[in-house]
Amino acid sequence: MFNIPANSLHKTIFVRLLVIYIIVILPIILLGIYLYNWSYNNASQEISRNTIVQLNTYLEDLNREIEWIEIQQFDILADKELQKMALAWEVMDNYEKKISITYLLHRLTSIKNTSPFIKDVSIHIPSIDKTFSATNSVQEFNHVRYESILACIQGTKSRIIKQGDSLSLMTLMFGGWEVGKPLFVIQIELNNDRLRGDLDTLNIYSESGTFLISKDWGEILATGEESSNIIQSFLSVVKGSSEFTEIMDVEVENYHTDKAHSEELGLFVVKFIPEEMVRRPLNKFSKWAWVFAFASIVAIVIYSYSTYKLVHRPLLRLVEGFKRMEGGDLNIPIVHKKEDEFGFIYDRYNNMLIKLKKLIDRDYKLKLMMQEAELKQLQSQINPHFLYNSFFILNSLAKIEDIERIELFTKMLGEYFRFITRNGESNVTLMEEIKHARMYTEIQNLRFSRRISVLFDELPKELELIKVPRLIVQPIIENAYEHSLEKMPDEGFLRVSFEKRGDIVSIVVEDNGDTLSDEEIHKLGSRIANINELQEMTGIINIHRRIALTYGEGSGLFLSRSTLNGLKVTIRIKLKEEGNDV
Fold first, then answer.
1. Kind and range of the H or E element at 106?
2. What's the Enzyme Commission number for this chain (predicted)?
3. HSE (CB half, 13 Å, CA atoms) of 94?
4. Short-list 424, 425, 426, 497, CA closest to 463
5. In this predicted model, what pLDDT tens digit does every residue of 100-120 receive, in sequence order?
């Protein structure tokens, strides 16, 4: 925070905007709120009260009618003759079948005639491959339709089930030979025309509409020309209280909507009226509305211009400055002569640019110096144990006068020391780095050819030309020989493999040594991960620091237990977007 002198308070953007707001906006808003709320709210609330009463009455009547139909449905569900047909059809003679069919059709017709809301009553009996209907008499069993009915019943808890364009009440009767499958299904199809007609009686105004919505099935029934558009908007807010009034914006017109909910039926009934219909009683205030609209436009223009000039334009300049900073351009300060909050921010922004340039320059140089120093340190760490063993091998080969192997060994040894001591470019291709690592293992193979075997997986072609720091693989292999494989009484095994996933390249070095416990591996991994802490610079930590400094977060060495039961070291390198350049 910064202190603003009392004599400069009038220069602040906040005070200027506050004064403009009070002078221009507040009187108009107060006038508009008074006129609008007094008239519109009264009309809107009165319409909503009457509408919600109508909607609740409609749902109560519909629920009573559905309950009556369900009573008839469950009455026939327990019918002994129907159960007899489903279970004993094969053993019934033709006369008994005819009597039962006649009885059942008469029963279905009687149920259909008990309510104008029933369009048809059907019983689907899979055991006899028959469907009995009050309208269509006896039909062949439709297996596709039957499976669709079962899927609808099992997929919802709603009492009214929507199947295509039809609405039905369905119930199942279990107890057949097949466990878990219904003996028969009773389906009462509702009369959509009668339901829609009753729903349409709620539309008092010519441009209004009403629709039924289920959480499980979406739209059930709808009346009114704009129902389809309003239903889509309503489905996103179908949850909430059992009753509500809301203004819904559909395309270019607003609608006043009222809702009622029936927990028993699981249905919402919604009535909508164009907002213009609600506003019609307010036409006598049209002159005041025009005055209010004109005053509001003037206020918006004045306020918008003031906000743009005092706030938006200075903020845009600040945003553009930060965008330039993100792009790496730190040489363009922001010029601003006004003595307000933005002047303070711009001054601090310009000071930040200067400090950032200094810090970046210093950090970049320090990073380069650190990488160079660590590489020099690693190059200087020629293992005397390895050097002694190399001379010992030469001595042994000289004693047996194996000139061919002496020539091969001295050539490999020369290539090895030339690679680790050269002071040229710090980065090499991954192919060169792996070639050097293989050279090292071939030298070691002269000592341990019968006791230690090495397997290098083939380096993928797309990874060969990736630029990596020198000496990141061979020191890890050397560490495996010195601390694990050389000490093993049994046959040792070392494997080097490669993997590329997205922009991450992994070089995995693992052995079958058993000298390290899980706790020791965890401690060593933690020690490597803490690269910012002061600690002894060993070879493996040196490699991790160079990789992490070069490639950033997510790169470095990661230790774990190998599937070979030894140590697994993963060299992880995160590529840049260019592809092969890290």
1. helix 94-112
2. 2.7.13.3
3. 0
4. 497
5. 889 888 988 988 888 888 888
Q: What amino acid occupies position 560?
A: S
Please state, in angstroms and rounded to a whole number, the distance separating the CA atoms of residues 197 and 181. Answer: 38
Per-residue pLDDT tens digits for 324-368: 877 777 777 777 777 777 778 878 888 887 787 777 766 655 665
8 CB burial (10 A radius; 0-12, 13-18, 19+):
exposed
Cα separation of the two ends of the chain: 42
Q: How many residues does the chain have?
A: 582
Q: How far from 338 is each of 232, 245, 541, CA to CA, in Å?
A: 52, 50, 54
The CATH architecture assigned to 381-574 reads 2-Layer Sandwich (3.30)
Amino acid present at 367: K
129: left (phi over 0), alpha (psi -120 to 50) or beta: left
pLDDT value at position 21?
Answer: 67
- Both tokens assigned to 230: 């309003």
Residue whose C-alpha is closest to residue 50's, from 245, 304, 197, 309: 245
Question: Which pLDDT band holds residue 496 (cuts at 50, 70, 90)?
Answer: very high
Q: Going by C-beta distance under 8 Å and a sequence separation of 6 or more, which residues neighbour residue 156?
A: 216, 217
**Under 8 Å between Cβ of 544 and 515:** no
